[in-house]
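Side project, low priority. Logging it here so it doesn't get lost.
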Amino acid sequence: MSTPMVPQQGSVDAAALSAVTAALGRVLDMDPSSFRSDTPLTDVGCDSVGIIAFVDVLAEDANIELDSAGQDIDEALLVCTTVGDLVEVTAAALERGGRVGASWELGPA
């Protein structure tokens, strides 16, 4: 059974979820609401090239930079196997101070 992706409104996870599903939707030409946390990336046609496009779209559309912060972000992204994994990597980047554009304002956690 698919796990619904419904983090608390205004949280870092909510911003990450919204940004990830929007970016994936754009890259894969899919409805962002169709993604679930356990959706395998391969099942929706996302491979390593798609991940690279995802990172670019995330930076362009949501102003979120997945920087390394001393870690190998490329390695972390390439071992992501589900949509939920991408949300976790994105939320971790936001918590480390990744840029957040005005359209992704965060309230108190």
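Brief comment: DSSP finds four helices and no strands in the chain.
Revisit when time allows.
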